[in-house]
Amino acid sequence: MNLKFSVGLDVSSKKVDACISTIDCNQSVKVKSSCSVSNSKAGFLKLVKWIDKWTKKESIPIVVSLEATGVYHEELAYYLDDAGYRVSIILPNKAKKYLQSIGLKSKNDKIDAKGLAQMGAEQNLSQWIRPKDVFVSLRSLTRQYQSIQESITVEKNKLHAEEQSALSNKHVIKQMKSHIRFLEKQKTKTEIAIEEVIKSDEELKLKVENICTVRGLSILSVATVIAETNGFNLFKNYKQLVSYSGYDVVENQSGSHKGKTKISKKGNSRIRRILHMPSLIAIGSEGTVFKNLYLRVYERTGIKMKGIVAVQKKLLLTIYYLWKKNEPFDINYQNKGNKNIQEEEKELSSRYASERGEKNSQTKSLAIQGKHPVSDQSMLPLGKIKDKKIMVEN
């Protein structure tokens, strides 16, 4: 008996390679069919018809897994989501590690699609959450702002080098200055566009205003964090946010060897970049929780950058909690004997915890009766089918 269909999609700029597999009660994965279509609306229509052809005979869940490939996968993900499929988008590094773990030495588009289909069949991958349009707009604008700022820095460095040259060229210097003025105007226009997008959504505007009460945080820095995290809809708790941003601490220890601990930096670098200047401003405020945190870390380690990074992480979590609680920042909050981060997290995720608690109690009851999900493959969290929509069980 098959438990579910798994469709693996390897997306490139011109085409989409697809593979459909099944997994049975014995956890055996079998390839049913493969195909290749163009990365266009016409190709997407053929892909959906092909999936329907191979899945219509059995009423079991259908999951679609595709690897994030720049922007080429986005249109297909939206199309399949509109069609009612349960879509999972896999990070390239995770897909690569999985394909290596199952012994796939060769690499091409068809092999990758087959591997993604097997990955979707064997694992219960997280469902892709479609971002709100306002967050997509903010992401494009904030990334453009950062790109312009980087270009300005490059041009200013080139201008400085040309001016200090023994044989500087006046015409080149004039062009560089003109280009810098143009970029500055574009940066200002982009910043205005970001503010207009925020003002267009009343709820978003109120939340951003509350978060900006933190000294050092500007509309731009807050908008960047919100846009890159899809309004924090990607996370169930603050630990996932910390890991996503690359602030999670990794340890290097084996036997008698004890290496240095450091942040992973494997997350979203745009968040870390935008929080650097706000952290320096926050540190400059005497008597605040940010200044005290910086001093504690610096006294313990003797490394200023570790203190700055700790403040960046603190600012990120402050944005997260002010967003969730929808209230302005209280500088004396911790001095009033209020909850720490861990207690706040428990309160914010109480509903999620209670739901899991109910599920765990049911599992324990079933285990006593000899009906544990591990023993009964039909009880695996594979989802339910309802008019092509996959309703995922918690």
What would you report as the Rg, rounded to the nearest angstrom? Answer: 25 Å
Task: State the total count of DSSP E strands.
Answer: 11
Note the beta-strand portion. Answer: 5-15%
In terms of structural class, how would the helical and strand content be classed? Answer: alpha+beta
The CATH topology assignment of one domain is: Nucleotidyltransferase, domain 5
Which range best describes the helical content: under 10%, 10-25%, 25-40%, 40-55%, 55-70% or over 70%? 40-55%
* Mean residue pLDDT: 85
Topology as H/E string?
Answer: EEEHEHEHHHHHHHEEEEHHHHHHEE
CATH class membership of one domain = Alpha Beta
Number of helices: 15
Shape: globular
Q: What is the CATH architecture descriptor of one domain?
A: 2-Layer Sandwich
Main β-sheet, in a few words?
Answer: 5 strands, mixed
Order of neighbouring strands in the sheet with most strands:
3-2-1-4-5
- Look at the structure and name the CATH superfamily of one domain: ATPase, nucleotide binding domain
The termini sit apart by 23 Å
